[in-house]
Amino acid sequence: MPDTLNYMIIGYLVAVLILGGLAAYIVVRQRQLKAEDTELTAMVEESSSTNKS
């Protein structure tokens, strides 16, 4: 019985670590994409303003 309990605890910890790493990766990736989007929108706005004038 204690062996299975230990395996359950270890498995739970591993799952938490994997999910935590995945969540952190997603957050970092979204931040990178948002930064790229803002850069792209700034470039598009600059090009459109130069085209008008």
Protein described:
By secondary structure, this protein is mainly α. It has a domain at 1-36. The chain is built from one helix and no strands. The chain has one helix at 2-52. The termini are far apart. The mean pLDDT is 87.
TL;DR of this structure?
The chain is built from 1 helix and no strands. The chain is mainly α.
Gyration radius, in Å = 23 Å
- The helix/strand order is H
How much helical structure, as a percent, in the residues? over 70%
Structure class: mainly alpha
DSSP strand tally: 0
- Principal-axes geometry comes out as rod-shaped
Overall residue-averaged pLDDT value = 87
Q: Indicate the proportion of strand residues.
A: under 5%
N-to-C span: 78 Å
Tell me about the largest β-sheet: none
Question: What is the count of helical runs?
Answer: 1
Poorly predicted runs of 5 or more residues: none
Output the keywords:
single chain, 53 residues, mainly alpha, 0% strand
Write the layout of secondary structure elements.
Blueprint lengths: L1 H51 L1
